[in-house]
Known about the structure:
The chain has helices at residues 47-65, 237-243, 269-277, 293-297, 301-318, 338-347, 427-442, 457-460, 464-474; strands spanning 2-15, 20-33, 73-74, 84-90, 97-103, 108-111, 116-119, 150-152, 158-160, 224-230, 259-262, 281-284, 328-329, 352-353, 357-358, 368-369, 393-394, 397-398, 449-454. The longest helix has 19 residues, at 47-65. Helix 5 crosses helix 6 (338-347) and helix 7 (427-442) packs parallel to helix 9. Strand 13, helix 6 (338-347) and strand 14 (352-353) form a beta-alpha-beta unit. The strands form 7 sheets. A 4-stranded parallel β-sheet has the order 12-11-10-19. By secondary structure, it is an alpha/beta fold.
Amino acid sequence: EYTSEISSVIIMKTWGAGAMEYSVILVITTLSLISSKPQTSNSIDFSEERDNEDTRYQAVIQELCKNRPPNEYFRLSTESNCRDVVRCVANDFVGGHSLAAVRCPTGLLFDLDGQVCDWANKVENCDKLTKPRIARPNFKTDEPVCQVGKLQCGDGECIDQILFCDKNIDCQDGSDEVACGVDEDPNAAPKCDLSQCVLPECFCSPDGTQVPGDLEITQVPQMITLTFNGAVNVDNIGIYQEVFKEERLNPNGCQAKGTFFVSHKYTNYSAVQELHRKGHEIGVFSITNKDSPRYWSQGSYDDWLGEMAGARLITERFANITDSTIIGVRAPYLRVGGNTQFEMMSDQFFVYDSSIAAPLGRVPIWPYSLVFRMPHKCHGNAGSCPSRPHAIWEMPINELDRRDDPTFDERLSGCHLVSSCSNIYDKEQFARMIRHNFNRHYSSNRAPLSLSFDSAWLQVNKGFTKALVDWMVET
């Protein structure tokens, strides 16, 4: 004789706000042995049905996750609201994948192309479930499958290696233009070769942290670059005059100077001319300053030519700058245009770019030549960093540590521009942040500290200009 204790647990799994609902009824039966006599029971065994349903459910997930990048979000239905997406997560316990759900905040929708939550009027793909599934080339095979000098497309076709990542589709499945990142491009720039890269024409180091010229760290001055992006006009010229007063000198007796990456729209070119007359550097920030990030990261050669070379022509003419000193470029939103941007820069005799962000690390990155491969990962910038060799210098923007109390606070992601440090609310926080980051650079390898601002940021945040000036005086 047996006594039976039956408990039922109903588990509901809901994905995508009603897009997929899956129910499992788990019946747990506990038997207590009273005697050896068998007992008949009329209870229904759901275990087989449950196992079949669970198997079908797992099969659907595995099919959804097959060959999908691990960080790609997608929708389960276009009928639910456009805020809900999921991504595949490897299940280390039972193998295969499970789905992790994300919902955008109220008022925002999920943009599949950008893989971010964005304003509703900017999202145009709510009718799509996923980004297009892209074929990838077969660069790694157990045995050679193509002749020397050729590589295999995703569909098995072999084409010349030089045809990969040249902006023209040569494989039937288009896979030759897919794996084109800094560490994937089969025609990428070589890694740093110190015997071939010699100052003053070239500088590189394996990880980007080496001091140029093998100088003793105590002999290296700590350089600080103050750069401003956007229009120069009556709204901010007073701030620039306050920051760069003539009596404000560096330790070597020279006046403090800044770099102004100027956009055409709303700019007063007489003010730009005056900045140049006083010895400040003028760079270009584009003509239109378009607010579409994809316009910059996917721009054509002619787009970059018109925006940057065109901006230089306009600035030289209307600000009467005739000494050919406009040699630097910064991309709006720091959205680098890949090899296309740097090909244009080289053709138009620009000398340097200052758009690539170096990730926050223990030791910052020194400027480097793009004749060799960039020494850090392509951080941000929509994954559109240059992979090929270019006779251009990169002045990287080392991310700032934005923690209010670095000795106590948990680690946060860095910010590229000072004006993008979203947790800085008052002037005391701002002063502490720039002091901490100065000390971080000065106590390590003394790589240049880049303090980059949007042109309106100091104007909007009252008291921040004085905090910056006070820090310049004390430093």
